[in-house]
C-alpha cells in the first residue's frame, strides 16, 4: 500500500476512534446531581434537559462523524479525486482555472453531503430544546451568502495561491503566505462594515443604564471603542454571546440581543470586561501571531509535497498538479493540524482564566462575572461536567465550574492587588 494513503486512511480512522471514545466518556461523565454552585439557578427539570441535550448532540456528532468517515474513505478508495479532476479538466481552463473548478466541485459535494446533517442539527435538535429561531428562508439565504463569500474571497485567493505555486519557484510558499495573511487582515478589517451585516443587523445600543455602565467601564480602564452595537442573534438562535470586531480605532462591541434581554447591566459589563481583558493581556495579538506563524509553517511544509508523485498516486491520480496536491497535502497534514489545535486550546484555556481575572479585578466584582457565567450556561444548556479528555481535546474555554471556582478564589484575595491592577490598567492607557 502507498505510504501516503496508509497515513491518510490511518489518521482518519484514528481521529474517528479517539473522538468516539471521548464522546462516550463525556456522556458517561454526566452526573444527575446539580453542582452546588448552580443551586437556585438551575431547576431540576432544566438541568435534566441540559443533560439530555448533551447526550443528543453527542449521539448526533458520532453518527455524523461515522458517516463522514465512511463516505470519505469510499470517495478516496473508489477514485473520487481522479473523477472530479476529469470533470474539472473537461471545462478546458488552464492549470489555475482548472484548480478553482476542482476545489469548487469538491466543496459542492461536501456541502451537499453535509446538508441533511445541518438541517437535522438546526431544525430537529436545536428546535427540540427551544434554541432554534432560524426559518427555512434564513437557512437557505445563509447558505447562499456563504457560497457567495467563498466565491468572492476564496476563489481569487485560491487562484493566487495556485498561480504562485505554478510560477513563483522555490519561494512560492512565502508569496502564498503573504497573500493569505493579507486577505485575512483585510477581511478582519472589513468584517464589521461589510461582511457581518450580510448576516445580521447591527443597531447602536440605546442610551440608558447599560450603555452608561459599559462606557463608564471602558473609560475607567482607558479602552477606546468606536461603537456599541446590539446584534439580532435571536434571528437564528436563542443562544447569547458578545464579541469584539475590527482593529484599533474601528473596534466595536457587539452584544447579542438575547444577552441584553436576559442579563443585568452589571453582568454585561463583566462580560465586556472579560473581552477587554483579552486585548489588555495581549491574547488577541498573540493569537493572531500564532495563527500567522502556523500558516507560514503549513505553506512551507506544503511546498515540499505539492508535486510529490507518490502523494498523487495515493489518491489514484496519474499526473501531478498543484491544485490536487494542495487538497491531498491538507488530508495528509490533518493529524498534525489536530495536534496543533489541541495545543492552541491549551493556550486559549489559560487565556480565559487570565481574562476572567482581569474582569474581576478591574470591575472589582468577581461575583458579577460568576453570575453572568452561570446565566449563560443555563441559557445555553452548557454541559457543567464535561469529561477532562473532552475538555483537553475540544474546549477552547475551561469548564464553567472551574472558572467560577477560580473567580471565587480571587474574590477572597486582598484588595491591594486589585488596586495595583487597576493602576496598571490606567498606566497602560497613559503610555
Ligand atoms: Zn474569553
TrEMBL record:
Enzyme Commission number, as recorded: 3.4.24.84
Binding-site residues, Zn(2+): 274, 278, 352
TM spans (from-to): 6-27, 62-84, 90-109, 147-165, 171-191, 288-308, 320-342
Membrane topology value: Multi-pass membrane protein
Cofactor requirement: Zn(2+)
Top-level taxon in the UniProt lineage: Bacteria
Gene Ontology process terms (BP): CAAX-box protein processing
Compartmental location: Endoplasmic reticulum membrane
The protein's enzyme class: hydrolase
Cofactor note: Binds 1 zinc ion per subunit.
Record Pfam families: Peptidase_M48, Peptidase_M48_N
Catalytic residues (UniProt): 275, 356 (proton donor)
Assigned keywords, A-Z: Endoplasmic reticulum, Hydrolase, Membrane, Metal-binding, Metalloprotease, Protease, Transmembrane, Transmembrane helix, Zinc
Molecular function as annotated in GO: metal ion binding; metalloendopeptidase activity
Family recorded in the similarity comment: Belongs to the peptidase M48 family.
PANTHER family according to UniProt: CAAX PRENYL PROTEASE 1 (PTHR10120)
Stated name of the protein: STE24 endopeptidase
Organism field: Desulfobaculum xiamenense
